[in-house]
């Protein structure tokens, strides 16, 4: 433990002694996860953090968690290929409430394969609904696993327009994000981080237990653009993973 902390301190010193240089572009390959922390001081948590995400959901503890209150307006937004994933930037007005805390839906995006695992199991894809709590300046991310099965109309509409070129905006106001939620919103809860730089540890992760079925053809439309944009599993470091009853 002391040796690991010493190494982290040494890395931090080396990164910061270089001064406030602009961070280099990051990737999931090339300048991938093992190198994110070295691309600039802003990304230091990617290697020194103790609550990094994603993790394997195992050893969870049953708890009386508050039900999730999802109040999304039913309006989509603008879809863009940002160079790391396909992301849908959302208009204001959609919220998620848990335990009295209100989060505003900012955007949602996709990873393949799934970033989180459940007792070692990986899913074909994972969608992250990223919410921001303006009062605490923290994030609440609702994660849903996507698995091969029946066609999902909402996902199919998005998949039909997934932009292959970076920076191309596609209007998806006709797509209701509520259609990307499974029937049950039972979930696991743990404290973690962003899974991309700067890997800041200010995220309440809510991992929905029930996967959502989507067609194999529509998954293939995403993997034709990004066939692996998932960060590797991180160590849990004795964090509690709570499971709703």
Write the layout of secondary structure elements.
Elements: H1 2-17, H2 45-48, E1 56-57, E2 61-63, E3 69-71, E4 78-81, E5 86-89, E6 95-98, E7 101-111, E8 117-118, E9 125-133, E10 138-148, H3 153-160, E11 169-171, E12 187-192, E13 203-208, E14 212-214, H4 216-223, E15 242-244
Parallel strand pairs: 1-8, 2-15, 10-13, 10-14
Antiparallel strand pairs: 3-6, 4-5, 4-11, 5-7, 6-7, 7-9, 9-10, 12-13, 12-15
Describe what you observe in this structure.
The chain has helices spanning 2-17, 45-48, 153-160, 216-223, and strands at 56-57, 61-63, 69-71, 78-81, 86-89, 95-98, 101-111, 117-118, 125-133, 138-148, 169-171, 187-192, 203-208, 212-214, 242-244. The two termini are 35 Å apart. The protein contains 4 helices and 15 strands. The protein folds into 2 domains: 1-48, no CATH class; 52-244, Roll (Carbonic Anhydrase II). Helix content is 15%, strand content 30%. Strands 2, 3, 4, 5, 6, 7, 9, 10, 11, 12, 13, 14 and 15 form a 13-stranded mixed β-sheet that branches. A two-stranded parallel ribbon has the order 1-8. The chain is an alpha+beta fold. Mean pLDDT is 90; it is low at 1-24.
């Amino acid at each position: 433990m002391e040796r690991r902390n010493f190494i982290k301190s040494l890395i931090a010193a080396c990164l910061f002694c270089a001064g406030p240089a602009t961070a280099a572009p990051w990737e999931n390959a090339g300048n991938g996860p093992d190198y994110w922390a070295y691309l600039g001081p802003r990304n230091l948590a990617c290697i020194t953090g103790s609550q990094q995400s994603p993790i394997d959901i195992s050893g969870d503890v049953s708890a009386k968690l508050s039900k999730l209150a999802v109040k999304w307006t039913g309006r989509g937004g603008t879809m863009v290929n940002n160079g790391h994933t396909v992301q849908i930037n959302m208009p204001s007005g959609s919220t998620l409430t848990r335990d009295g805390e209100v989060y505003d839906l900012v955007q949602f995006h996709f990873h393949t394969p799934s970033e989180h695992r459940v007792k070692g199991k990986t899913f074909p894809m994972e969608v992250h609904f990223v919410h921001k709590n303006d009062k605490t300046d923290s994030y609440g991310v609702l994660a849903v696993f996507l698995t091969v099965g029946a066609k999902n109309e909402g996902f199919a509409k998005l998949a039909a327009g997934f932009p292959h070129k970076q920076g191309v905006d596609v209007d998806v106001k006709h797509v209701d994000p509520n259609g990307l939620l499974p029937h049950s919103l039972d979930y696991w809860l743990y404290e973690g981080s962003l899974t991309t730089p700067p890997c800041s540890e200010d995220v309440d992760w809510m991992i929905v237990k029930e996967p959502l079925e989507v067609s194999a053809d529509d998954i293939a439309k995403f993997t034709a653009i990004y066939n692996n944009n998932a960060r590797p599993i991180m160590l849990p470091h004795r964090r509690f993973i709570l499971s709703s009853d």
